[in-house]
Every structure is written in structure tokens, then in C-alpha cells.
Amino acid sequence: MKTAAILTAVWLTGGVAHAFPPAPYHELYGIVRDEQGQSLANGSSVILAGTSGTILAGVVDASIALGVNYSLKVPMDAGTLAQMYQTSAMRPMMQFTVEVLVGGVHYVPIELQGGMLQIGAPGGRTRLDLTLGVDSDGDGLPDSWENRVIAALDGLHGLEDVTPEGDCDHDGVSNRIEYLAGTYAFDSRAVFRLEILGVADGRAHLRFLAVKGRSYRLVPGISGDDGNPVAFSLRPDGVDATTIHRADSTHFQDLYVPAGVAGGSQFFRLNVQ
């Protein structure tokens, strides 16, 4: 009786072992939104395909992380051999497309209409937020959302009048931010803004308009990287401290944050996804 030996090739660099031809996966992740900017419901699928066909699919799941409802771990090939170790693997800079399957219907997200994207390097991560719907003017805002704004305001005649950087209701917030935040670009009273109402008992009292289905978190500073989220409470006594709040209705939401040293300044930003 003969026994067959299976040999796995390994090379060492700086004390780290690397198996080939596979390489660390590249993660594609982000959030899938519908035409009105709402996060897609759980159970839909995000499908990634390369030039040779479908590579993998992932289920939409809002519990993955704040502002993330899909994650695709794309198998990558190290490129050390002429032939890839599996037909569904990819190499850096290979082209791909993404479709979203909802209720048995395939949709091409706005970001992918008219072209393909290129995958990044092994071990990397790429955020790719996906928007469903039709975007006739290619500005990143779905036609149905823009048409809703046009119908509600006088003086707007077509999609060209609703631009991402514009401010249709003159509330100081761009149309694109209104779309992402879920507020109304035709109502200046509904605006994504964090207000400071006062400081009492060592806590700063903040307020903002929360929109059903959106998730919110506070981060320090006024610009740059988000950094670690800031703990806040929805009650003045602070017993329900958290770093994430998901709104189950549209309403004005109060937040309470420990105040800083007397005489000092604190800066916060409110992120919505």
C-alpha cells in the first residue's frame, strides 16, 4: 500500500509564515440604502461578481456594525503562480461588479451603473456604500428622492435643480447630507443639527432630530478621524450610558454627556448612518 504525501509550500519573511497561492482576503463592506436613504432590511443579498462570474454573496445584516449592513470577504490569490488557486479568487486590480438581490429581483447600485470597480490588495479593506434606484443625472442622489423635493418646493423644475452640494430648503445643510441623514431637503425645520441646550449637574444637554431607522453616535473633535466614540445617555441621570443610539421613531432626541473641566471647551460631532 502506498501513501501519498501532501506538501504545503510556505515562505518566511521576518518570522511570519505565508501560505500560497492563497492570500489574505480583501474585505468589501458598507451600507446598502434604498431610494429614500433608508438602510436596506435584513435578508437581502449583496452579490460580487468578477469577469468569470459570481465570486461570493453576503446577506444584509444590520447587526454587523454601526453604519455597516454588509461585509464581503473576497478570496485573494497571491499571484505567485500563473494559474489561480480557485476560479472564484481575485488578484489586486481585478475588476468586479456588485448587485443587490431584493425579493428575487437583481438591482445594480447607482455606484456601479455604467462601469466596474477594481479590487484592492490582500489584507485590505474598502468601504463601498451602495444606493439602489435610478440616478439619471449621475449625481449620486436617486431620482425618486430628488423628485420628492421638486414636488414639494416651488421654483424647482427638474433633476438639475437638486444637486448634492445645493441646499434646496436653505437650512444650511446640503441636499446630500439631508439624504444621508433622512431629514427633509424641502423643510428647513427638519434639519440634521446638534444643539447645545445647557449644562447642569456636570452634564451637557444636547438635542437633535432623530430619524426612524438611523443610528447615531458622538465622536470627539470638529474634524478629522472619528476616533473613539463618546459615551452618552438618553436620560439626565446617565444610568443608560451607551455609544450608539438607533432611533425607532422620528423625534427630537435629548442626549446627556459628562461636561469637561470648568472653563475648558469640548467639541463633539454627531455621526448618522
List the helices and strands and how they pair.
Layout (H helix, E strand, L loop, with lengths): L9 E4 L2 E4 L2 E9 L1 E2 L11 E6 L2 E7 L10 E8 L17 E8 L2 E3 L9 E2 L6 E3 L2 E2 L11 H10 L22 H7 L13 E6 L2 E8 L4 E6 L24 E2 L4 E8 L9 E5 L1
Parallel strand pairs: 3-11, 4-12
Antiparallel strand pairs: 1-2, 3-7, 5-6, 5-8, 8-9, 8-10, 13-14, 14-17, 15-16, 15-18
Query: How many strands, which pairing sense, and closed or not: the largest β-sheet?
Result: 5 strands, antiparallel
CATH topology of one domain: Immunoglobulin-like
End-to-end separation = 62 Å
Strand portion? 25-35%
Give, in order, the helices and strands.
EEEEEEEEEEEEHHEEEEEE
Low-confidence stretches: 1-19
How would the global form be characterised? globular
Q: Provide a count of the helices.
A: 2
Gyration radius, rounded? 23 Å
CATH class of one domain: Mainly Beta
State the share of residues found in helices, binned by percent: under 10%
* CATH architecture call of one domain: Sandwich
Which structural category fits the helices and strands? mainly beta
Give the strand tally: 18
Overview in brief:
The chain is mainly beta. The protein has helices spanning about 145-150, 175-180, and strands at about 10-15, 15-20, 20-30, 30-35, 45-50, 55-60, 70-75, 95-100, 105, 115-120, 125, 130, 195-200, 205-210, 215-220, 245, 250-260, 270.
